[in-house]
Specification:
The complex is a heterotrimer of chains A (114), B (499) and C (144). Chain A has three helices and no strands. Chain A is mostly helical and 114 residues long. Chain B is mainly alpha-helical. Helix content of chain B is 78%, strand content 2%. Classes of the chains: A mainly alpha (114), B mainly alpha (499), C mainly alpha (144). At the A-B interface, helix 2 and helix 3 of A face helix 6 and helix 7 of B.
């Protein structure tokens, strides 16, 4: 099970990095979000990959509890990446409108003198 | 337990809520009050911790290492106070430097949001919350950077967003791996568990991952390219705030996480750190020397100054860290003041291009004086704050026997002086460009531009003249980092007593 | 926006069901899976569904909610929940529970975590809806 998770996360990292190295803005953002999902998977795999009960003191014996911290970390990361995705999509949309192209290489205005 | 240390979080949250105020002017006034209240709270914390007492609060009353811990030690208190000073100055400065459209859109609430992220990063005692603090800070900075939607802002913003998201991703990976190695994310607990353990492969990898993640935020070589590509695009008040504070939060996190939790691994990484510090200093200042645009020139200087901070960290001695903390205080003040002054030059002459400026000495002698003080301080001339900062750093490096670093630091200082003199020659000393008429600033505008700039320059001079107490404070902060027993005890033992 | 009659009908029927379900998730969130965040997302889902069926403009007109303002009110509620703990207790975000008895319903536990969850619910609902509606409006503008 762990092996499957590790391989999936690795493939997602590879895909994400590959997409980020493309010139298209849309692919860049898809690559970014793939990268964040891959991290979520990685952290999920670090928590025990077994079916456990909710970690509520007195309701569940301690040795049957799931580790809540990786899940909390993932939940937070999902929320943040959701916001990030929405913002970067809007930003890329506006930037492509302003630059009249989807090509990242065209965004060189800030490197030259205005 | 000291629950009141949560004040630097509640005040910015209330600043965010000022978005509900119907009128623009009202919102601005509330933001000014909020920034001032935050400053007062942070100064109070500094005074309380100055005696060496570490303040702890557990959010929700859950004991460490299970809950969210807020800790104020001398280092956090220094950083909180200096950030509060900068944000207060920027809020006052924004009255004239931010146009009505941006003000009408939630500019001040966003400042509150940014301040919340910065304060949380300085206050937090665990990695999870540090991650959240970074994200709050990043989100607010994304919006502030692209607010207004000019083409340059959108392009610079995209680069800034992409590289910082990659940095956050690496940070998150590092946090996840740390948890699976050590079983905790509380910094005090981590320090206790990892400090005695021998440096094994995975912990060195973790330290490297944290170094890269914080390195992207702090803009060290070779991860700094997003900074000069984006920092000059927004209005100058926002650039000043970012240039003064954001990269420094990356350095602070390096201190907090690497020095506290991974001291053994840092010894392995020391040659790398020293090399990176030298390259950061050199590339930054060389980039700056080549620029003719005030904002871009100063943006490159941010990178160069980060090199000095990294150098102090890389020496791994108390003296080096103390120098770095002092340098941090100095550079935040000097850098923000210089951005403010370039903003005044822009308001007066309508350009950031050195070639088009000129005659500032005649038209605005007061501004010229402020510039000289801030620029000389940045270059490191006595008796200003920069001199003591560099003296401390170089003495520490000599004591550690790192002569190459000393040579590089001194050479970079010279080049810094050169680029400051270039600004002086072109913008202040040279005769006004032909056909250029100085714009008349309204009295209120001038006051809101001059007051915060003067405040910062006065602070630079005061830190320079009364260096002794500040040096003592910095060494106290450095000792707290290098000998974390007191920190660990206060965080972990206090919470046990609470139960 | 779609012209499909079936989809529009479905959206109209589903909207109240989804809102009820989101409130259910919000209230049971303390010992069972759920809470303000999930509830807010489900609630936002209903508004997204309406936007897909009728278009952002019409949804805005019908709902007459200023999403951004409501988001700030939600934030205020969440902060208030934290400050209550600070004022009467030992720490920010400290949890407090009060049990009240209402005729016909039974005893109800009111707590600062619930207040916090309500704030989160409002923030999530409003942020998500306003993101989607803004994007939809931008698309509609392009179509014209």
């Amino acid at each position: 099970m762990l092996l499957i998770f590790a391989l999936t996360a690795g493939v997602m990292f590879a895909c994400g990095v590959y997409l980020m190295l493309r010139r298209s803005m849309v692919r860049l953002i898809i690559g970014l979000s793939l990268l964040t999902y891959a991290v979520n998977l990685l952290i999920f795999a670090e928590g025990d990959l077994q079916r456990r009960a909710a970690p509520i003191i007195d309701a569940v014996p301690e040795d049957q509890m799931a580790d809540p911290l990786p899940q909390a970390l993932i939940l937070t990361a999902i929320v943040i990446s959701f916001g990030m995705l929405a913002f970067s999509l809007a930003l890329a949309y506006r930037a492509s409108q302003a630059a009249m192209t989807d090509n990242v290489d065209a965004l060189q205005r800030t490197d030259r003198d205005i | 337990m000291q629950p009141y240390i949560v004040l630097p979080l509640i005040i910015p949250l209330l600043m965010v809520l000022t978005a509900l105020a119907r009128f623009r002017v009202f919102r601005r006034r509330l933001a000014q009050i909020g920034a001032f209240a935050n400053l007062l709270a942070c100064v109070a914390l500094l005074i309380v911790t100055e005696t060496g007492q570490i303040q702890v609060s557990q959010m929700g009353g859950h004991p460490a290492p299970y809950g969210i811990t807020l800790v104020v030690d001398p280092l956090s208190a220094i950083m909180l106070t200096i950030a509060a000073v900068i944000v207060f100055a920027v809020v006052i400065y924004s009255r004239a430097a931010i146009d009505i459209n941006r003000e009408r859109f939630t500019y001040y609430p966003l400042l509150g949001c940014l301040l919340l992220g910065i304060n949380l990063a300085f206050l937090t005692g665990d990695l999870f919350t540090l991650y959240i603090a970074f994200e709050i800070m990043l989100m607010a900075s994304f919006v502030l950077l692209t607010l207004g939607g000019e083409r340059g802002q959108l392009e610079g913003g995209l680069k800034y967003v992409v590289l910082n998201v990659v940095g956050s991703t690496l940070f998150l990976i590092a946090i996840g791996l740390t948890y699976s190695v050590a079983g905790t994310l509380n910094l005090a607990d981590l320090a206790q568990r990892l400090a005695d353990a021998p440096s094994i492969g995975i912990t060195t990898v973790l330290a490297g991952l944290f170094l890269i993640a914080f390195g992207i935020k702090a803009a060290i070589f070779p991860l700094f390219f997003w900074l000069p590509a984006s920092y000059h695009t927004p209005p100058i008040a926002i650039t000043a705030l970012f240039g003064g504070l954001l990269t420094k939060v990356g350095i602070y996190s390096m201190w907090r996480v690497l020095v506290l939790v991974f001291p053994n691994e840092l010894v392995v990484l020391q040659p790398l750190l020293l090399t990176l510090a030298m390259l950061t200093m050199i590339t930054g200042v060389l980039g700056a020397v080549a620029q003719m645009d005030l904002r871009r020139l100063l943006s490159f200087h941010i990178v160069s100054q980060i090199g000095y901070l990294l150098m102090g960290t890389a020496l791994l001695t108390e003296a080096g860290l103390a120098g770095a903390v002092f340098f941090m205080i100095h550079v935040i003040l000097a850098k923000t003041a210089l951005f403010f002054i370039s903003g005044i030059a822009y308001e007066a002459q309508g350009s950031y291009d050195l070639k088009k400026l000129g005659g500032m000495r005649v038209m605005h002698p007061g501004v010229a004086l402020l510039f000289v003080l801030a620029a000389f301080s940045l270059a490191g001339l006595p008796p200003l704050s920069g001199f003591w900062a560099k003296l401390l750093l170089i003495r520490a490096a000599l004591e550690a026997g790192q002569y190459l670093v000393v040579a590089v630091a001194l050479g970079v200082s010279l080049l810094t002086m050169y680029s400051m003199v270039k600004i002086w020659n072109e913008a202040f000393w040279a005769p006004p460009a032909p056909g250029r008429v100085a714009a008349m600033l309204s009295r209120e505008d001038r006051r809101s531009l001059m007051f915060p700039t003067t405040l910062l320059v006065v602070l630079i001079v005061v830190v320079g003249l009364l260096a002794e107490p500040v040096i003592r404070l910095s060494s106290q902060a450095a000792v707290g980092l290098m000998q974390p027993a007191a920190y660990i005890d206060t965080v972990l033992v206090d919470s046990e007593v609470e139960e | 926006m779609t012209q499909s009659l079936f989809f529009r009908f479905l959206a109209r029927v589903m909207m109240p069901v989804l809102i009820l379900f989101s409130l259910f998730l919000l209230l049971r969130g303390h010992n069972e899976p759920g809470g303000g965040f999930v509830g807010g997302l489900v609630g936002a889902g209903s508004i997204v569904l309406m936007t897909l069926a009728y278009g952002a403009e019409e949804v805005r007109q019908r709902l007459r909610i200023d999403f951004l303002r409501t988001m700030y009110y939600g934030l205020a509620v969440a902060i208030l929940a934290g400050v209550i703990g600070l004022v009467i207790g030992v720490a920010f975000q400290d949890a407090y529970w009060w049990t009240t008895f209402i005729q016909g319903i039974g005893s109800i536990e009111v707590s600062t975590p619930l207040l916090f969850d309500i704030g989160v619910y409002m923030v999530v609902l409003c942020v998500t809806s306003s993101i989607v509606m803004n994007m939809a409006e931008e698309g509609e503008r392009e179509d014209h």
